[in-house]
Design goal:
This protein has 414 residues and is α+β, with helices and mostly antiparallel strands. It is built from eleven helices and 21 strands. The chain has two domains: 144 residues, D-Ala-D-Ala carboxypeptidase, C-terminal domain (Peptidoglycan synthesis regulatory factor (PBP3), Domain 2); 240 residues, 3-Layer(aba) Sandwich (Beta-lactamase), CATH 3.40.710. 43% of the residues are buried.
């Protein structure tokens, strides 16, 4: 037996539910249904109907809360990340500050090599001076806001003795943090055959930075920073072009093209985007805004049923009541393409009528939810209350009615 609901929005899921004709239906074993329900809760569908458009050769959209990849184009291929790989340098510094190994007041000395790095043409720089003692709070801004290669080299040399040794630390942390599609040769992102990151790893690292270091993360949204009497604006174009944007990092080399990792928080949801391979800074700015708009406009998280909600009811045989309420124990919601959510439908499936006695909390049915282009997903449904079996004389009455009731000419379950 089954019943079906359709939904045009999250609020109408309950109101649109309606009973359909009975039919035979077997249930999956309860333990399998329970595992399916838990593993797919909140992120059951990879979107099939979101028409994301971007000119970027590499692109990815991630939902921050769940870590679900909503869209990707070549997102798992290690690529030249340029200065976007400075996010790894930053994450290591944040981690050392949080653990107490460093503080924002810790001072790092500027070597001649780091100073010369800042004199090169075509490289991003903080404009550090040889012999300076610079507080880490300033070096962080030189890396995050100004994308300074010189500042990155300063912290690498002071922490590990050399940039090469710091790269070993980067690779060790990448392995510990599950960045399996990344390798590092330097702290800056300058071209090197061993300096690679995938768009997916960049998104994962961004998610970690936002989640693990909330006290330090706001530096990413600062609009400018002045050092050596030179004021430089934050290079992230999303901070000006997209309401709610508050991070993260741009990158550019001849090898990689123009790229960006960005994140924004809007209407209670946060998205992370990565793009790379664009031909100009203007194209990067335009495509970053376009991709972030789609990240919010094309995808949504909707809750169909909260924990403990009554989803429907089932018929009962030989019980002191002929109906029983069906409830879910956990929230049932989905993060996927809005077009798929608009066409969601659901069935309550059980082998019935259910035979009394039935205990409250006993699994007696499943909720089967379908969306276009995807296999149905099932969630366990439980008895809302206890239903006792009827007494001896009532059973006799049931038996007599069964003998005297003519067969139904319509569809018969069983």
């Amino acid at each position: 037996m089954y019943s079906r609901f359709t939904t045009q929005n999250a609020c109408s899921a309950l109101a649109d539910r309606r009973l359909l004709k009975a039919r035979p239906a077997g249930l999956l074993p309860a333990i399998i249904i329970a595992l399916i329900g838990l593993s797919l809760l909140l992120s059951a569908f990879i979107p099939a109907h979101a028409n994301v458009r971007t000119k970027a050769k590499i692109a990815l959209i991630m939902d921050y809360e769940t870590g679900q990849i909503l869209f990707e184009r070549d997102g798992q291929r290690p690529m030249a990340p340029a200065s976007m790989s400075k996010l790894m340098t930053i994450a290591i510094l944040f981690d050392m500050i949080q653990s107490g190994e460093l503080s924002l007041d810790t001072k790092f000395s500027v070597s001649e090599a780091a100073w010369r790095r800042g004199q090169g043409t075509g490289e991003s720089k903080m404009w550090v001076l040889v012999g300076d003692e610079i507080a880490l709070r300033d070096l962080l801004r030189g890396i995050i806001i100004q994308s300074g290669n010189d500042a990155s080299q300063v912290v690498a040399e002071n922490i590990a003795g050399s940039e090469e040794e710091f790269a070993k630390l980067m690779n060790s942390k990448a392995a510990a943090w599950g960045l399996t599609q990344s390798s590092f040769a330097n702290a800056t992102g300058m071209p090197d055959p061993n300096q690679k990151m995938s768009a997916r790893d960049l998104a994962l690292l961004t998610r970690k930075i936002i989640h693990d270091y909330p006290g330090l993360y706001p530096i990413f949204s600062e609009s400018e920073f002045t050092w050596s009497n030179i004021t430089q604006p934050n290079r992230n174009p999303l901070l000006k072009s997209f309401d709610g944007a508050d991070g993260m990092k741009t990158g550019h080399t001849e090898e990689s093209g123009y790229g960006l990792v960005g994140t924004a928080f809007r209407d209670g949801q946060r998205r992370i985007i990565v793009l790379n391979g664009l031909e100009t800074a203007q194209a990067r700015s335009r495509e970053a805004t376009r991709l972030m708009e789609q990240a919010f406009d094309l995808f949504d998280h909707r809750v169909f049923f909260t924990a403990g909600s009554r989803v429907g009811e089932a018929d009962v045989f030989m019980g002191r009541t002929d109906k029983i309420g069906l409830v879910v124990n956990s929230e049932i919601g989905f993060l996927t393409a809005r077009t798929a959510l608009e066409q969601a439908s659901g069935e309550i499936v059980y082998q019935g009528p259910l035979r009394a006695p039935i205990d409250k909390g006993e699994q007696v049915a499943v909720l089967r939810i379908s969306m276009p282009g995807r296999e149905a997903v099932e969630f366990p449904l439980y008895a809302e209350e206890t239903v006792r079996e009827v007494g001896f004389f009532a059973k006799i009455g049931f038996g007599l009615r069964s003998l005297l009731t003519p067969p139904d000419d319509g569809e018969v379950a069983g």
